[in-house]
From TrEMBL:
Keyword rRNA processing belongs to the record: no
SUPFAM superfamilies attached to this UniProt entry: Immunoglobulin
GO cellular-component term (any): cell-cell contact zone
Cellular localization per UniProt: Membrane
Record-given protein name: Ig-like domain-containing protein
Gene Ontology biological process terms, A to Z: homophilic cell adhesion via plasma membrane adhesion molecules; regulation of Rac protein signal transduction; regulation of wound healing
Signal peptide: 1-28
Keyword field contains Cytoplasm: no
InterPro entries given in the database record: CD80_C2-set, Ig-like_dom, Ig-like_dom_sf, Ig-like_fold, Ig_sub, Ig_sub2
Topological type in the membrane: Single-pass membrane protein
Organism in which the protein naturally occurs: Echeneis naucrates
Length: 406
């Protein structure tokens, strides 16, 4: 009998199946064969352990029944096979750079009066590489995206799993037999919104050759959507001579590169300067009043926002009053045009003879409201007065005839 051992340093522990001793002669010459599993690219040790060996011929053959070694002499020109040990008790060869095509039963034969042999089956594991992820079509806001995770080569077939936010997403799994190896794919379809842009998913590949490890392919969703536009307005009231800066905040995927500024029903002022999303106008005047428009577009839509500019005049009246020793003369001012500034005058505590002008910003709406209220009150008083006067005269006329009769 012959004995065959296949040893793999890469995959402990080995799967060992020991054949029972087969007695073929009175001397009980026997071999034992052991099965083993090895990673592709690893090294296998094939051993023939002999019992009661009497010097008979020992032959080692590959799964195609080609003779590898004849009593320690190389018979097949394949440098990957090396004879490392030949003793009456143990014959051992090594096979380097193992591939799936080396799988099968290796024969260790002992030639006596009758031929005795045992077969060791060599199994090769092919771990998967990091899987790939492909999108069938673009992910557009409001639609669905189909993603496929692919493991093109493994043995046995790898197990694929989709993960998002720590949770598994069930996929449709398909498997193809490539002869010695398998290709596996897992496909998912998920709805996408704008908020999903940049969301992280991962496809994980599990395999016996990896143990507790796994191959992971990370994927980031790229969701396309139409742009949004918002003009960031300046704060406060703008007056003649001030400067205006408008910033157009734009989002979108892809991000619009061309941002257009315009003025509705008019052309942009000569002093307008555009720098990307920013519009600047220096030395404002009331001729700049109007509605300014910011527009942006990409392949998925167009958006716009507008800003209405209202520039107020900046007229202020300064009245100089000559001081006197005994009193301060009343101060009056008559602005030629309406103004946002209401002049107030106070005495300078450091110089009692000087008058300092102060301004308080009062919008036209407040002044107009107060004046309207005063006018309305005066009209109401006049109406009530006239009505009472008319009624009193009527009462006198009614009494005069009665007195005359008496």
């Amino acid at each position: 009998m012959a004995f065959l051992t296949v040893w793999n340093y890469c995959v402990p522990p080995l799967l060992l199946i020991t054949a029972s001793c087969l007695v073929r002669t009175a001397h009980c010459q026997a071999v034992q064969a052991e099965n083993v599993t090895v990673l592709e690219g690893g090294t296998a040790q094939i051993s023939c352990r002999l019992q009661n060996y009497d010097g008979s011929i020992v032959v080692i053959q590959n799964p195609r029944r080609q003779t590898l070694f004849f009593n320690g002499t190389r018979a097949l020109k394949d440098d990957r096979f090396q004879m490392v040990l030949f003793t009456p008790r143990l014959v051992r060869i090594t096979l380097t750079n193992v591939s799936v095509f080396d799988e099968g039963g290796y024969f260790c034969q002992l030639y006596t009066d009758a031929t005795h042999h045992q077969v060791a089956t060599l199994s090769v594991l092919v771990p998967p590489e990091t899987p790939t992820v492909d999108a069938k079509e673009e992910a557009v806001e409001g639609g669905e995206v189909e993603l496929t995770c692919m493991s093109p080569r493994s043995k046995p077939a790898a197990t694929l799993r989709w993960i998002r936010n720590g949770r598994e997403i069930p996929g449709v799994v398909s498997q193809q037999d490539n002869g010695k190896t398998f290709s596996v794919s897992s496909t998912i379809r998920i709805p996408v919104e704008r908020k999903d842009n940049g969301a992280a998913l991962s496809c994980e590949a599990f395999h016996p050759a990896l143990g507790t490890q796994r191959r992971i392919r990370h994927y980031r969703l790229d969701v396309y959507f139409a742009p949004t536009v918002r003009i960031v307005p300046p704060s406060g009231i703008l007056r003649e001579g001030d400067s205006l800066t408008l910033t157009c905040s734009v989002t979108g995927n892809p991000l619009p590169r061309n941002i257009q500024w315009s003025k509705i029903n008019d052309t942009l002022p000569e002093r307008a300067e555009i720098s990307g999303p920013t519009l600047q106008i220096s030395r404002l005047s009331q001729s700049h009043n109007g509605t300014y428009l910011c527009q942006a577009q990409n392949n998925y839509g167009r958006a716009a926002d507008h800003y209405t500019l209202l520039v107020y005049d900046n007229v202020s009246v300064t009245t100089t009053v000559r001081p006197t020793c005994t009193s301060t003369q009343p101060i009056t001012s008559h602005p030629a045009t309406p103004t946002l500034l209401t002049p107030n005058f106070i005495l300078d505590p450091k110089d009692p003879g000087a008058v300092v002008e102060t301004h308080s910003a009062v919008p036209y709406a407040v002044i107009g409201g107060v004046l309207a209220l005063l006018v309305f009150t005066v009209i109401c008083v006049l109406i009530v007065t006239i009505w009472c006067s008319v009624r009193q005269k009527g009462s006198y006329r009614t009494r005069e005839p009665i007195l005359a009769w008496y």
